[in-house]
Amino acid sequence: MGTLYVCATPIGNLEDVSIRLLKTLRRVDIIACEDTRQTSKLLQRYHIRKRLVSYHQHNRRAREELMVGYLREGKDVALVSDAGMPAISDPGEDLVRSAIREGFPVVVVPGPSALVSALALSGMDTTRFVFEGFLPAKASQRRDVLASLAAEPRTAVFYEAPHRLLETLEDMEAIMGERQIAVARELTKLFEEVVRGTVIEVRQHFATHPPRGEITIIIEGNPGQPAQVDRVALLRELEELIASGVEKKEAFKIKAREYGLKKRDIYRLFVDETDSS
Q1: What is the 3-state secondary structure (H, E, C) of 220-250?
Q2: The domain that contains 124 carries what CATH number?
Q3: Contact between 105 and 42 (Cβ < 8 Å)
């Protein structure tokens, strides 16, 4: 019985590989990849020679059957995308489901991810977030998606193509209001850039500096009003955590997650109570 290995690959810098990834790619029988030319660059960099089979959005149905056939023959298959983790906003999820349904072992080899990297660099609230993948290319559909997220209190993360970035930012400004945003592009590459500010500030930047490369957008959630909570109970729990040795910042984070609030809301409640005592 073969094993399907779901392998994260570098999102830009080819040195962002793990020893385990290289060992896995050398050990498997076949590598299913989004673009054989792109994967070949990684393999050549580390002197790995393996059979590559293209597996992408347009041929995934036929190739899915082929890959499952290899697994039935006892061959091990590595699934990779051009960059990052396969099966995340990627047709690889279909192959993973098929392998699970057929009873084959599925093993993940974790590694780089544009989603996580951009979120960590954004400066936004990372306690809770939603990932929407690529926004629709059609303007009306894109606006519908943004409208459905307008009241979302969590940080939202999107992927976007560079030629649609300005239109998307215009839609975000019109639908979601003047929020804080970060646009990360070409992460881990020579010209890595993270532009932070209000939606209009970031849009003005890219209007005069046309973007290139892979783009991730991170926008703060709807500030709204803090949810109604038992202030007395929450403050008592915070004081107990801090008294037990937990740092204030970590205590705010723990209670924000527990109560479904933002860390800044917890902080404000704590400061207001401290100031009034």
Answers
A1: CCCCCCCCCCCHHHHHHHHHHHHHCCCCHHH
A2: 3.30.950.10
A3: no
